[in-house]
Amino acid sequence: MPPVKKVKLDLSKIKMAIRAGIPLSITTYTLPREMEAYIDSVLKAFLNELNQDKMSEYLTYCLNELLVNSKKANTKRIFFKQKNLDIFNEEQYSEGIKSFKSETLSNIRYYLDLQKKAGLYVKFVLQARNNKIKIEVRNNSELTVEEYKRMHDKLSRAQQYTSVDQAMTQVLDETEGAGLGLIIMILMLEKIGLTEENFQILCENGETITRIILPLDEKTQKNLSVVSREFVNLIDELPQFPDSVMRINRLLNNPDSKMSEIATLISSDISLTSDLLKLVNSATFALASPCRSISDAVKLVGIRGIKNMILSVSSMNVLNTLGEETKALWTHAYRVAFYTYNLARNFCSSNRTIVEDSYICGLLHDMGKLIFETTHPAYINRIKDICAQKGIQPDIFEKLVAGVNHGEIGALIAEKWNFPEVIVSVIRHHHEPDLAPENVKKLTEIVYLSDMLAHYQEKDIDFYQFDQEVLANFHITNEIQLQKISNSLEKAFDKESQ
């Protein structure tokens, strides 16, 4: 037998999917051996990144069982079609299944070629989100009633066995002999503490979906949270906002303040005035005529708008002192801010609060990354020492460096700087908008979509990796519509950046 060709593993895409909570998907039509090996390696790398590698052996077996069953289901459709039998007819199903195994195995290449021509696929989907790992195998052959009954019969019978040996003995004694792999799979899941509730079979939109839901290790999550907080507590020496900005903020937070007082105080800071007017007059805000004074700016964008702009400008000034290596992150941040503001104006024009908060939330969504990537080595070493003292594995810290939990770190820093709760929440949940508080969910979805669009334009992600519920909320139902919005935003941003 010839050696299996290796497909190169892109670890960076796996890390990004974990960091952003987006799905990874691999589609195959014939499931050759090299593809099986590649899918196994993706699963193992994914689990390793999440400190779940102890489960790797069991889950690899389960995954292979699901993949092979899905491929077999597709082969069955082709076989029945070639025999002019209706697979959904109970009598014809019983007739065809008698010779299905022997005839297809003796001529498997022929049937696999027909599967590919018919567009019958097997899709592997992997996602870590909301403290759970979702492992899915999908194929575009819906289960028949008979197949569904047989599968659930095997799942029910799996509960009767206490060991793999017992299952093999009893199942192999029967003339049918089918379903052993599925029974063993359930027993494998039980070995890692899962139950039948963690395994799902469903038909949806023309696909059969088999799904394993794996709760993330609580200890890993707790340790990530501990290290994140320790990191934020250590960075007391981060540059602070200038006194003038703090005075302006106090005035802005005072409901009795007059616009004229606010404008006068802002105007006394020449540098801040210049930066604010530059931002207000940028193409992002698309003013009908140039704004030439802070008084006009305050009238145009309001107290909340000015406050957010000051936080934006001040944050940029503070964070820009951290080093040249943040240039790429800032380029991404400016793009996301521009997209967020424009999407907010288009989709939430009647909600002034969302529009006013959109730019700063888009700008600072990755603040955790900005801080972490420029942290002085002395802080890094101190965090490592804390990990050792608390008995936390070193790779937990490495995951923070890779960007895992950067939303939480950014939110903690925003809290430390006394940012409004809206901004804190959006930073915290920008990769998981469904977890955002209801009052900021729409804005969080806009930032999520803007961030994903920026990555989509960089070819970092594909259309399928977008949250389909979020897309639906913006009336985006296919990639053509997404591409149209993407092109429009990209063109406008590039024009402004010239």
Automatic annotation (TrEMBL):
InterPro entries: HDIG_dom, HDOD, RNase_Y/CdgJ. SUPFAM superfamilies: HD-domain/PDEase-like. Gene3D superfamilies: Hypothetical protein af1432 (1.10.3210.10). Residues 238-433 form the HDOD domain. Pfam families: HDOD (PF08668). PROSITE patterns: HDOD. PANTHER family: PTHR33525, RIBONUCLEASE Y (PTHR33525:SF3). NCBIfam families: HDIG. This is HDIG domain-containing protein.
